[in-house]
Amino acid sequence: MVFGFSQSSLTGILWLQWIGGLAAMTMMFVIGLTIGWASPYLAQFSSGESPFPASAVESSWIVLIYQLGRPLGAVLGFLCNQYFGSKTTMISTGCGLLVSWILIIAANSVTWIYVARFISGAGAELVGISFPLYLGEISSPNLRGTMIAMTTNGLTLGLLAGNTMGANVSMRIFSCISLVPTAVFTITFALLPQSPYHLMSRNKVMDAEKAILKYNPKADISVEVDSIKRFVASSNKATFFSRLREFNILRNKKSGLMIIALNFFAQSSGVNVFTAYSEIIVTRGMVTVISPATMVIITTGVGVLAGFSMMNFSDKFGRRKIWVSSSCGLFVSMAVLGAHFYLLTDGFDSRSLQWLPIFSMKLFAVCYNLGLLSIPHILVGELFVANIRGLAALISCLSAAIFGFVSIEMYQLLSDFVDEGYVYWIYAILMLVSTIFGMLVIPDTKRMTLIEIQNSMMKR
Fold first, then answer.
1. CB of 185 within 8 A of CB of 131?
2. Which of 171, 226, 298, 401 has the fewest CB atoms within 10 Å around its CB?
3. Where does the Major facilitator superfamily (MFS) profile domain start and stop, copy by copy (predicted)?
4. How far is it, in rounded angstroms, from Cα 218 to Cα 105?
């Protein structure tokens, strides 16, 4: 939206935009809780300290079920946003997440956990598609980037909170506490005005005008309405298949393949393994100078700081440099962790090696949150024109979900056949390839307009 106001008038005028942004951040915080849940409670299932028994195979399926829910969530997210709007989609997602927490509270067997984790996985991708569309439709141009970055950082904050709570409270108490922020964002979204873009697409012109003025009382209503009408008219003419055919255009095809490749590298970095099995990895690595739970909490906290630093680095250094630097750091991290487990297998004294996994996990948290976490989301918004951006987001989320599932499954399969150190070396090799890919393929979009970015893609 094109709102007319001075930077000094932000305070007190755009408060409803900030409430929407904070609600979206709370929503991502809850998704972070669902991810952070895995590490402490999988460790409990493995050690036999859980409220009910689960075999090693059942514990592995708790991780896989979450990943299986993600593709369904991506498809549902695309369809629901198209037909019901981003606000309604996020309210529905909140209701689903409330159900998932209640299922864990009531769980007396692993089957209940399966259902809850599947719902959580689907909710993660529903949120991933919905919040950028919602914030893009209700926020001012000079606030949009900040709000999206703020919302994304809610994920790492939730992950930190999940790891911290999981180390200190029972599974049921964790879920009871998690009900609170889930209810908060669901109720908040229910009270916020609908997106004026969605209202206009339903020919509710009067309601759209009211929504515009609620989100920004100083908006030039005639200019805004005319702009939104043109956008909606052009979007409504495009069917799903006509949008899909636009990916036959060379620049869109290149951009689509690039986003899929970036998601492959991001999901194949070991991030899903680290978030699900952190405490187990620390225990297997024979780290005794610090408890596994504390180690995970500190590592996640370092990742949170790195994520907030990304808000300043993304426009200062450019997408390509950040991706390459991030991939290089992850290569070192995985190579060091692989060397640690190789040396343990070779009979080295574990007490003299403890600094290796500590260093590796800290470096991983910093480098992943500085680059691989955010760059695919940023480029989806930059490489595609508005009428196919939603479909591009679907392709991005769907590919990330599929690669996330494959990465977890491959980790479990490889761990059964080779020493754990070799698995991390495979991740290291993939990160080396990711570094080369970034140098050769990722465009440097710093300070470029969308038209300039797409023209540069035609030349590559």
1. no
2. 226
3. 1-446
4. 47
Q: Which residues contact 152 (CB under 8 A, 6 or more apart)?
A: 28, 307, 373, 374, 377
Contact 259, 380 (CB under 8 A): yes
Judge contact between 150 and 25, C-beta under 8 A.
yes
Angle at 97 between CA 96 and CA 103, to 5 degrees: 95
Tens digit of pLDDT for each residue in 112-121? Answer: 999 999 999 9
| Confidence grade of residue 248 (pLDDT, cut at 50, 70, 90) | confident
Average pLDDT over residues 71-100: 91
Q: Residue with structure tokens 């024109």?
A: 385
The C-alpha atoms of residue 438 and residue 453 are separated, in whole angstroms, by 16
Distances (CA, A) of 52 to 110, 217, 348: 8, 55, 37
Burial of 387 (0-12, 13-18, 19+ CB in 10 A): middle
293-346 tens-digit pLDDT: 888 888 888 888 887 776 666 556 778 888 999 999 999 999 999 999 999 888
Q: Kindly report the three-state secondary structure assignment for every residue of 202-215.
A: CCCHHHHHHHHHHH
User: Domains of the chain, with CATH numbers?
Assistant: 7-192 (1.20.1250.20), 239-460 (1.20.1250.20)
Among 25, 32, 120, 21, CA closest to 301: 32
Q: Where are the alpha helices (DSSP H) in 107-170?
A: 110-138, 141-166
Contact assessment for residue 42 and residue 110, using Cβ atoms and an 8 Å cutoff: no
Report field, pTM of the whole predicted structure over 0.85: no
**Residue 442, pLDDT above cutoff 80:** yes
Pairwise CA distance, residues 18 & 355, whole Å = 42
Q: CB 4: neighbour CB atoms within 10 A?
A: 11
CA–CA separation, 267 and 260 (whole Å): 11
Do the Cβ atoms of 141 and 17 come closer than 8 Å?
no
What is the maximal distance between C-alpha atoms in the chain? 75
**C-alpha span between 222 and 199 (Å, rounded):** 16
Give the pLDDT confidence of 390-405 residue by residue, as tens digits.
788 888 888 988 998 8
A 10 A CB-CB count for 92 gives 18
* Measured CA angle at 409 (ends 408, 415), to 5 deg: 90
- ∠ Cα 311 312 315 (to 5°): 95
What are 218's two structure tokens?
């100083």
Cα distance between residue 28 and residue 25, in whole Å: 5
Can you tell me whether residue 39 is helix, strand or coil?
A: helix
Report yes or no: 322 and 314 within 8 Å, Cβ to Cβ: yes
